Amino acid sequence: MFLSSNRVTNKILQSRVELHVHLDGSLRHETIWELSKEKGLHLPGNGTFQDLQEAMVIRRPKDLGHFLEPFLISTPCIAGDLSAIERIAYEFCEDKAKTGVLYVEARYSPHSLLAKDCPSDIEALSEVVRAVNRGHARGEAAFHVKVKSILCTLVGTNTGLEVVQLCENFKNEGVLGIDMASPPKSVPKEFVEVPDKGIEVDAFQKAAKLGIHRTVHAGETGSAEMVKRAIEIYDAERIGHGYHILEDNAVYQMALQRGIHLENCPWSSYLTGSVPLSTPKHPVVQFAEDRANFSISTDDPMVTGQQLQGDYELVNNYWGLTEADLLRANLNAARSCFLPQAEKKELLSQLKSIYGLDETDGI
Ligand SMILES: O=c1[nH]cnc2c1ncn2[C@@H]1O[C@H](CO)[C@@H](O)[C@H]1O
């Protein structure tokens, strides 16, 4: 079928699926400002709102550690404060609805949102998850967007088994899966290491046995080998970023064959230094050409300074993804989301009907 540019743009604008976005990487700068003031927290520069904004948005790519530095300012505003956590989860829904998102999976590390001196026990962690869920539930009702959660363990923290327990306890309350991401401090210099053994591996294998969905950050600034590990050892169904998978054709072919979903985040890929602007062909373009299972997300709008539209514009205007590629990316996301089968089917039919596609369109 012929897809006219405008027609598809308008439809995609109003109906997108986003699979890779950090809830704690989505705080509004105004909210960080208000909470910091209220709590008397140290503000960067001369303490003006402009200085805060300047510190929160990364404009020049360096490395992942640099990209994650703004979390050191934002996280203390919400950690240990259940009403602030509920607030940011609610505001998240409003921001997503404004950018045309129909369905989103928001990820965060419950451990990072505990008060600084609070020992990590399941009850305290559960309070964090409940606060997020309250915010999401209010936001879903107010802004007509569907939101579920993914809980992260952070490399080197060995919190995976507790995260799996939380996923299990909250599986009927909007928590759909587990992720492994990087802590903002002590990011390994060249890549996010995906350990080949230890507690985190046990946690992911346990998650697989329990039917908890799995995604792992790999091949972002790290190598194709990390992606291989994430798939083969962590049983990951989806890969966070995965750009460097293209450096090893055998790993790429294996991922293609298994239909592994690659969660791409265009602005973030540039600002973490993972994919320099000078790269002749962004990996997402290769994924689109190969009809790989990829989608487009924001990662951390608080840090990139971009909402989803900005990421679509970057890949569309700069790297040359077509409207049809973007439409396909959304259908891929709906097919690879962690919703139960019936809800997934419903989401897919909803998208197809909005996009004006039927089963025979072969997109
Ligand atoms: O692009 C990324 N790569 C790896 N880790 C990330 C990225 N963005 C955020 N986080 C990490 O994930 C945690 C839970 O949401 C965040 O606190 C941040 O440390």
TrEMBL record:
Q: Residue span of the signal peptide, if any?
A: none
Q: E.C. number, please?
A: 3.5.4.4
Q: Which UniProt keywords apply?
A: Hydrolase, Metal-binding, Zinc
Membrane topology of the entry: Peripheral membrane protein
Write out the GO biological process terms.
adenosine catabolic process; hypoxanthine salvage; inosine biosynthetic process; negative regulation of adenosine receptor signaling pathway; purine ribonucleoside monophosphate biosynthetic process
Which cofactor(s) does the record list?
Answer: Zn(2+)
Keyword Cell membrane belongs to the record = no
> Which molecular function term from Gene Ontology is one that the record holds?
adenosine deaminase activity
Q: Where, per UniProt, does this protein localize?
A: Cell membrane
Q: State a GO cellular component annotated for this protein.
A: external side of plasma membrane
Q: Chief subcellular site?
A: membrane
Q: Which Pfam families match?
A: A_deaminase
Q: Which Gene3D superfamilies match?
A: Metal-dependent hydrolases (3.20.20.140)
Its domain of life reads Eukaryota
Q: Where is the Adenosine deaminase domain?
A: 16-352
Q: Does the keyword Zinc apply?
A: yes
Q: Which protein is depicted? A: Adenosine deaminase
